[in-house]
Amino acid sequence: MKATGLALAAVICSLLLALSGCATTAIQVGYWTDDPRGPFGKPIYVFGGTITDASAVVGSASAEGEGTIGALLIFDLPFSLVADVVLLPLCIYEQIERTTWKEADFIPRLDDSDPEVRRKAAAALGGLDGTSHATVEALTKALGDADARVRYTALSSLGELGPRSASAGPAIVERLRDPDSEVRARAATALGEVGFDSSLVIPALIDALHDPAGGVRCHAVQSLAKVGGGAQSVRAALQGMLDDPLESVRDAAREALATAR
What confidence score (pLDDT) does residue 66 get? Predict the structure, then answer.
């Protein structure tokens, strides 16, 4: 009987938590506290809580695992909708304010003493409109940052800028030898996005196929298919990855060979 009472109490507590508009609360709190120097670099979503709950309910969960409690979050949906409506003016204001951000607002922050500020500044620079070569130069310099998270984010932003980041190609190639495996993997991805000189990129990516980290090998395979999938040397290298010990790498190699031109 006691166990039944405890179970009922747990269910009631869970429902109360679900009926709090917690998705909206989590998004708003995360936005305003994510950065130690103010909310930049991370978008504030209009009707974010409602979208999060709806996505969880239908099973298209976020990486945080919202979908595992999708059935419970259906109770949160109407409350998140109300909270999102109340906060709509703030969200619209923040979205409009973001359109006024300029690269000059963030480039100096790449030299901040706080690595989290540097990381956020690097992230913001990758999503701005109207960026110039000054942004590419600043992000290229950030590839040598002492903090691996900053290097990773700078690579991500250079990749988002695409061909505009071509001048950063040599520095990105250098990051294939970064001591952090996640940075190396992101460098491999970036090389497939920036459109740098394939005569230098292809050999570097082929060398990355021997990286001890499976994630690096997988991203190198995917980028090779983008930058030179039709080259004989690339196809031969991709064929060799069909025997990789990791299934994810083998799958990536098969897909690359099937789609490469």
Answer: 43
Looking at the fold, whether 129 and 236 belong to one and the same domain comes out as yes
Listed residue (188, 127, 189, 124) closest to 150, CA to CA: 124
Q: Identify the domain containing residue 242 by its residue range.
A: 103-259
Same domain, residue pair 48 and 145: no
pTM reported for the whole predicted model: 0.72
Confirm if 178 and 202 have CB atoms less than 8 A apart: no
Number of domains present in the structure of the chain: 2
198-203: long-range contacts at Cβ-Cβ below 8 A with a sequence spacing of 24 or more?
198/227, 198/228, 200/169, 200/170, 200/173, 201/169, 201/173, 201/227, 201/228, 202/227, 202/228, 202/231, 202/233, 202/234
Band of residue 30 on the pLDDT scale cut at 50, 70, 90: low
Domain co-membership, 12 together with 94: yes
Band of the pLDDT at 61, cuts 50, 70, 90? very low
